[in-house]
Automatic annotation (TrEMBL):
<dbReference type="InterPro" id="IPR001245">
    <property type="entry name" value="Ser-Thr/Tyr_kinase_cat_dom"/>
</dbReference>
<feature type="transmembrane region" description="Helical">
    <location>
        <begin position="26"/>
        <end position="51"/>
    </location>
</feature>
<dbReference type="GO" id="GO:0004674">
    <property type="term" value="F:protein serine/threonine kinase activity"/>
</dbReference>
<dbReference type="GO" id="GO:0005524">
    <property type="term" value="F:ATP binding"/>
</dbReference>
<feature type="compositionally biased region" description="Low complexity">
    <location>
        <begin position="1"/>
        <end position="14"/>
    </location>
</feature>
<feature type="region of interest" description="Disordered">
    <location>
        <begin position="68"/>
        <end position="143"/>
    </location>
</feature>
<keyword id="KW-0723">Serine/threonine-protein kinase</keyword>
<dbReference type="InterPro" id="IPR047117">
    <property type="entry name" value="PERK1-13-like"/>
</dbReference>
<feature type="compositionally biased region" description="Low complexity">
    <location>
        <begin position="127"/>
        <end position="136"/>
    </location>
</feature>
<feature type="compositionally biased region" description="Basic and acidic residues">
    <location>
        <begin position="71"/>
        <end position="83"/>
    </location>
</feature>
<protein>
    <recommendedName>
        <fullName>non-specific serine/threonine protein kinase</fullName>
        <ecNumber>2.7.11.1</ecNumber>
    </recommendedName>
</protein>
<keyword id="KW-0067">ATP-binding</keyword>
<feature type="domain" description="Protein kinase">
    <location>
        <begin position="159"/>
        <end position="381"/>
    </location>
</feature>
<keyword id="KW-0812">Transmembrane</keyword>
<keyword id="KW-0418">Kinase</keyword>
<feature type="region of interest" description="Disordered">
    <location>
        <begin position="1"/>
        <end position="22"/>
    </location>
</feature>
<keyword id="KW-0472">Membrane</keyword>
Length: 381
């Protein structure tokens, strides 16, 4: 039997680490809870940002599927050439040739002119005292002129290519000169197009009600068998889109940009605030802002416009407009209000300030639309 190990006769107890105090445990627990909470907040923030961007992209994608404006090969949803781009100025714009217009079938030189088939327009809407000056309003004409097809063919040299201003989903626009020497832009809608017929009726009905120096005015119209033509005042300096994105165009100075923005806002405010019932344009974009040689702006193209009364909370309608300018809530729900125009105007202002297109994957390194790009730049500067 083994003997106990030699020693001094007394046993020495084994030492053990001291137990942590209660304060240390609380500190460790607090640090762990703080780190966990921070991680949860970061995850929630990332999810919210992702969800908002996904929702906006779905809205824009949905609106693109719902409505297609202009030729299918146009990535921006609008016409390849806009409706009142004038003939090249003397310095010559060496752009691509437009397709040759298709002559309308069954042209007769003594067409029968029928009535418009719409109620006589009411007198011009009342305007507030702030807009009654000569600088704000133009004098409304007593009535619009009904032209024969022969008269408009003569004014445009038989709708020759030399007078072609542009082409869109609706048809062709030609420059014309009336017998009294007045220059006009003649918009010829495609034959047999149900959408074109609706836009024709809408333009006559709406534009007859508005008389403002920053809204393009209607001179007259022509209904000849299946032909539908609208005659507008001619605005000679093309569109805001041309001056922002046209190849080889010099950049606009800031004073000119401000002038265009203010004039466009006055025209839109007149539609929303001084017309009774108010008018929602539904297609505010750079291509629908016409400019004269002094860069005075006029809002054009009322083919998609709708009336909106003070008692309406919204109008439920088919989503129409141009991809990139549509308000997300309108694109998602089809509920139209005057705020939809305001959103489109805001996109146009971003385009005017930055010089970038609303939708252009080649220009945006984060997203493919100008609203998300500006939001990202603003948050990270």
């Amino acid at each position: 039997m083994s003997s106990p190990p030699a020693g001094n006769g007394s046993s020495t107890p084994t030492s053990s680490p001291p137990a942590p105090s209660s304060d240390s445990r609380y500190v460790a627990l607090g640090v762990g809870v703080g780190i966990g909470g921070a991680l949860v907040l970061v995850c929630v923030g990332i999810f919210v940002i992702w969800y908002k961007r996904r929702k906006r992209r779905l809205a824009l994608a949905g609106s693109l599927l719902i409505t297609q404006q202009g030729p299918k090969d146009d990535p921006y949803g609008g016409p390849r050439e806009h409706w009142q781009q004038n003939a090249p100025p003397p310095r010559a714009n060496a752009g691509g040739m437009l397709p040759k217009p298709i002559p309308p079938p069954g042209i007769t030189w003594n067409p029968q002119i029928s009535s418009l088939g719409v109620p006589n327009p009411p007198p011009p809407p009342s305007v507030s005292s702030s807009l009654r000056s000569e600088n704000s309003l133009t004098q409304p004409s007593s009535s619009k002129t009904s032209f024969t097809y022969h008269e408009l063919a003569c004014a445009t040299d038989s709708f020759s290519n030399a007078n072609l201003l542009g082409e869109g989903g609706f048809g062709y626009v030609h420059k014309g000169v009336l017998p009294n020497g007045k220059e006009v832009a003649i918009k010829q809608l495609k034959v047999g197009s149900g959408q074109g017929e609706r836009e024709f009726q809408a333009e006559v009905e709406f534009i007859n009600r508005v008389h403002h120096r920053h809204l393009v005015s209607l001179v007259g119209y022509c209904i000849s068998e299946s032909q539908r033509l609208l005659v507008y005042e001619f605005v000679p300096n093309k569109t805001l889109e041309f001056h922002l994105h046209g190849e080889g165009q010099p950049p606009l100075n800031w004073a000119t940009r401000m002038k265009i923005a203010v004039a466009s806002a006055k025209g839109l405010a007149y539609l929303h605030e001084d017309c009774q019932p108010k008018i929602i344009h539904r297609d505010i974009k750079a291509a629908n802002i016409l400019l004269d040689y002094n860069f005075e702006a006029k809002v054009a193209d009322f083919g998609l416009a709708r009336f909106y009364t003070d008692t309406d909370t919204h109008i439920s309608t088919r989503v129409m407009g141009t991809f990139g300018y549509l308000a997300p809530e309108y694109a998602l729900s089809g509920k139209l209000t005057d705020k939809s125009d305001v959103f489109s105007f805001g996109v146009m202002l971003l385009e005017l300030i930055t010089g970038r297109r609303p939708i252009d994957k080649a220009q945006f390194y984060l997203d493919d639309n100008i609203v998300d790009w500006v939001s990202f730049v603003f948050l990270h500067t």
